[in-house]
Write a structure and sequence with these properties.
single chain, 352 residues, mainly alpha, Rhopdopsin 7-helix transmembrane proteins, two-stranded antiparallel ribbon, 13 helices, globular
Length: 352
């Protein structure tokens, strides 16, 4: 019995420090990285690209994501003597509620804060996925525009629509309005039944199906599909199309290239388009990989949870596992800029 209590206390302490250091990393390095990302995409010639609009909106959404739930969890675990009400997203609570609470009944203000916190969390997460999806469509459209034989097809006109700055602003605004309305459902679903439970969903089944199907399956699958199509188009395109109709050899390489095409291939705009495409593909890979653990564990919790004991405290070991899985969701919003600095030479040179 004593060994069991000792092990539980150690797991509880390790979970607390995991939340402290993990969320401190997300809040600190994530905000710094996103600031660098905003500064980079506001430079010329990137700010004239339609894809940059989608990336900037996604970056601002990441600011909201990182300074909402992660910051709250950091404060909950640092200031243990304060009367914090837990803000779990999806399952039961992560941090243990302190035993010195004078009452288990939440106030109206705490319930309102709970609903607002969940609303902005889901809104920012949805916008990030949506903007990345639009950016992947933009990259696919950019590759389609360079296919000479498709310039008169409907595919070309659709692709051309996503490559204009004015349309990028319209799509971003429409996406913000639509997701702001859709995310209102979480305001009605989330509440605080008691302070010991924290901020949890009334209907866990509805929440799990919605989040996993939209955020972890539908949007990542669409992003992956557009990314694969973009890579396919890039591989079948020549490096640059000669405006003077020079001859091709059997390997689709130019036998002779005019000076105009040589200058275009070396131009800054061409390099920017190439680096943007690689950046979006890298971001799609990271987003999909970090979404899989959350989706898998959500379904596992939905299938194995005991409805009669859902409102009771979960074990320390399960608490520790859930903390790690939840943190994978914040890897891309906090580490995206650093991944690009490592993998993309053009981006890295701009900060040297």
């Amino acid at each position: 019995m004593n060994n069991s209590i000792h092990n539980d206390s150690e797991l509880d302490l390790s979970t607390r420090y995991l939340n402290i250091y993990g969320n401190l990393f997300f809040v600190t390095f994530g905000n710094i990285g996103n600031l660098l990302k905003v500064g980079f995409f506001l430079q010329k010639p990137l700010r004239s690209c339609a894809c940059s609009v989608f990336i900037l909106v996604a970056t601002f959404s990441n600011f909201i994501t990182l300074n909402n739930i992660p910051l709250h969890r950091l404060l909950v675990n640092v200031f243990t003597s304060s009367y914090w009400v837990n803000a779990g997203v999806g399952w039961s609570k992560i941090e243990k509620i302190r035993s010195n609470l004078s009452s288990d009944t939440a106030t109206d203000f705490e319930i309102i804060v709970c609903k607002l916190r969940i609303y902005f969390h889901m809104l920012s997460a949805s916008l990030t996925f949506q903007m990345l999806l639009l950016a992947s469509i933009n990259r696919l459209g950019s590759s389609w525009r360079r296919r000479k034989y498709q310039q008169q097809t409907c595919y070309y006109h659709i692709a051309d629509y996503f490559c204009h700055m004015s349309n990028a602003f319209k799509l971003s605004l429409i996406s913000c309005i639509v997701w702001a309305i859709i995310s209102l459902q979480h305001v009605f679903n989330y509440t605080i039944v008691s302070r010991s439970q924290g901020c949890v969903a009334r209907n866990l089944t509805l929440w799990t199906i919605w989040v996993t199907s939209i955020h972890c399956l539908l949007l990542p699958i669409l992003m992956t599909l557009f990314g694969i199509l973009t890579l396919k188009n890039i591989r079948t395109l020549p490096t640059i199309r000669c405006l003077h109709n020079r001859r091709y050899d059997q390997n689709r390489q130019f036998v002779q290239m005019c000076h105009h095409c040589v200058d275009n291939r070396r131009s800054s705009q061409y390099q920017v388009e190439k680096q943007l495409t690689l950046m979006i593909i890298a971001e799609i890979i990271v987003t999909v990989l970090t979404s899989v653990p959350y989706a898998a564990y959500s379904f596992y919790r939905l299938l194995t949870i005991n409805k009669y004991t859902y409102e009771t405290n979960i074990s320390n070991k399960a608490n520790w596992i859930e903390s790690i899985i939840r943190m994978t969701v914040y890897l891309e919003p906090s580490c995206g800029c650093y991944i690009y600095l490592i993998t993309l030479t053009t981006l890295r040179k701009r900060f040297n």
